[in-house]
């Protein structure tokens, strides 16, 4: 009986020590946007069967705006992926450098509080 009480006391103590760690992990959710950006079409003319019509947009810098103010920037990686931390709110995302042709935003996004919003945006290369 004494061993059973000692074992129960140990379990209770362990649970009390771990409880704050679980609460912190759940309540400190990062908010922002993450995802990938593709560009399409990748070659002129009709889409060819079996050939991809889109590819990742690598190493490209984007501005994150709230209204007219730039609040953050990010750059896509080699696979067109990105992640940027933002507070909850409504944002528009545009390519930093505007090219002579193509469409690269703005992309509108609403970021919820304490959560990462996952997106996949497709840019128009302007190739026809």
Describe this structure in words.
There is one protein chain. This protein has 128 residues and is α+β, with helices and mostly antiparallel strands. The chain has one helix at residues 2-27; strands at residues 32-40, 55-56, 61-66, 69-75, 81-85, 89-95, 107-111, 116-124. Strand 3 and strand 4 (69-75) form a beta hairpin. The chain is elongated and about 45 Å long. The protein contains one helix and eight strands, in the order αββββββββ. It has one domain (29-124): Immunoglobulin-like (Sandwich), CATH 2.60.40.10. The longest helix has 26 residues, at 2-27.
Computed Rg: 23 Å
Return the CATH architecture. Sandwich
Envelope shape? elongated
Mean pLDDT: 83
Assign the CATH class.
Answer: Mainly Beta
Structural class from helices and strands?
Answer: alpha+beta
Strands, total number: 8
Total domains = 1
In whole angstroms, the N-to-C terminal distance is: 82 Å
Residue share in helix: 10-25%
Uncertain residue ranges:
16-27
């Amino acid at each position: 009986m004494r061993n059973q009480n000692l074992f129960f006391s140990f379990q209770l103590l362990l649970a009390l020590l771990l409880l704050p760690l679980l609460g912190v992990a759940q309540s400190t959710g990062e908010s922002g946007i993450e995802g990938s950006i593709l560009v399409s079409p990748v070659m002129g003319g009709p889409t060819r069967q079996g050939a991809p019509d889109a590819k990742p947009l690598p190493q490209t810098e984007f501005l994150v705006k709230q209204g007219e103010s730039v609040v953050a920037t990010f750059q896509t990686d080699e696979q067109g992926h990105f992640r940027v931390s933002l507070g909850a709110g409504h944002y528009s995302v545009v390519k930093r450098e505007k090219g002579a042709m193509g469409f690269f935003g703005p992309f509108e996004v609403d970021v919820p509080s304490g959560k990462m919003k996952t997106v996949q945006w497709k840019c128009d290369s302007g190739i026809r």
